[in-house]
């Protein structure tokens, strides 16, 4: 009887352990345009909250179930991509630009809006418009270029 209980408990343990078995999947995410690494890409195991982001070199590392699943790669301005894991432990991905998704937005002190919905004055200063010469403070780059803008400094 003890042998049957021991055998049953061992079988149950192995069944539960295999269901929770994890393995590591690694890889690199690059741009299909020029092959450069893309830092900050979200890599999520589909249907779960398990995920990570790519590091500065576009590399990621994620624990996934032994059974596999699907990885979902997302990044603003790039097409989302889904890749079936299967039995692979290294999954490199190349992401394409999604130019249709990019719209002009305006970042305000309290949120964001599309440019066409903004009802107040908006001014853009491009790098070619910056003030030339010696600059001791970044504020000096745009001084006098934006009407109505006053920048003050406090000393504490």
Biggest beta sheet summary: 4 strands, antiparallel
| Mean pLDDT across residues | 79
Q: How much beta, percentage-wise?
A: 25-35%
| Helix and strand element order | HEEEEEEEEE
What is the count of helical runs? 1
Order of strands across the main sheet: 3-2-5-6
Question: Tally of extended strands?
Answer: 9
Span between termini = 80 Å
Describe this structure in words.
By secondary structure, the protein is of the alpha+beta class. The protein has two domains: 6-99, Carboxypeptidase-like, regulatory domain (Immunoglobulin-like, Sandwich), CATH 2.60.40.1120; 103-141, no CATH class. Helices cover 12% and strands 28% of the residues. It has one helix and nine strands. It has one helix at residues 2-19; strands at 22-31, 42-45, 51-53, 59-65, 70-74, 81-84, 93-95, 105-108, 111-114. The protein has a four-stranded antiparallel β-sheet, with no helix packed on it. It has a three-stranded mixed β-sheet with strand order 4-1-7, with no helix packed on it. The longest helix is centred in the first third of the chain and has 18 residues, at 2-19. It is elongated. It starts with a helix and ends in a 42-residue tail after the last strand. The mean pLDDT is 79.
């Amino acid at each position: 009887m003890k042998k049957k209980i021991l055998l049953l408990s061992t079988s149950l343990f192995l069944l539960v352990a295999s269901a929770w078995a994890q393995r590591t999947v690694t890889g690199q995410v690059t741009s299909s345009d020029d092959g450069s690494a893309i830092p900050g890409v979200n890599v999520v195991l589909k249907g779960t909250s398990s995920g990570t982001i790519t590091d500065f070199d576009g590399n990621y590392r994620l624990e996934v179930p032994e059974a596999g699943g699907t990885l979902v790669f997302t990044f603003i301005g790039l097409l989302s991509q889904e890749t079936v894991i299967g039995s692979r432990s290294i999954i490199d991905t190349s992401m394409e630009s999604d130019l249709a998704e990019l719209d002009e937005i305006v970042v305000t002190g309290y949120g964001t809006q599309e440019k066409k919905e903004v009802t107040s004055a908006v001014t853009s200063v491009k790098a070619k418009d910056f003030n030339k010469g010696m600059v001791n403070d970044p504020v000096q780059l745009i001084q006098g270029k934006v009407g109505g803008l006053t920048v003050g400094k406090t000393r504490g």
